[in-house]
Amino acid sequence: MKLYFAPGACSLSPHIVAQEAGIPLTLVKVDTRAKRTEDGRDFWTINPKGYVPTLELDDGEILTEGPAIVQYLADRKPEAKLVPPADGSLARYRVQEMLGFINSELHKTYSPLFNPATPQEVRDERHAYLKKRYALLEERLAKHPYLFGEQFTAADAYLFVVTNWARPTKVDLSAFPHLLAFQARVAERPQVRAAMTAEGLLKS
Q: Does the structure show a pLDDT above 90 at 204?
């Protein structure tokens, strides 16, 4: 399988899940501004949506959208317990619920903060909105090392990646010590470090 990625973007989340599950991926770096792969291909022809992550399966099928990709990868290696089994259990839907929350309430809220043309009043509003959403997660992480207890899941990978964007966008998370401890805890996981090193985010 091929994972089309941009270093440190949300595509790092499925990259981490694959590493944690022991699934080998061929990495293809994408210039998300120019919409070109590092080997010169027009990325629009690979994913008409024009963004990462994009997963190309061995049969040529293309899968997009981070929450779908991480569940697909996790289901390939159920023994890694990165998502609960697809058996209709509430635990499965709880992870999907959290992936949806991170996607809509955190990920999309950060997006305008990367645009230098975004007015300051919009930035201030987005910062305040993020802090309200993080307050819910802070309460949860005060009780457990990960979002669902002792077990690291695909949702933890996604939260870690998105929350790493706080530094470049100047979102102050100092009021959330349990969230910051979570970020530090995840950052030390060997497979997380391996994914970040492969993307050039850490020195090998």
A: no
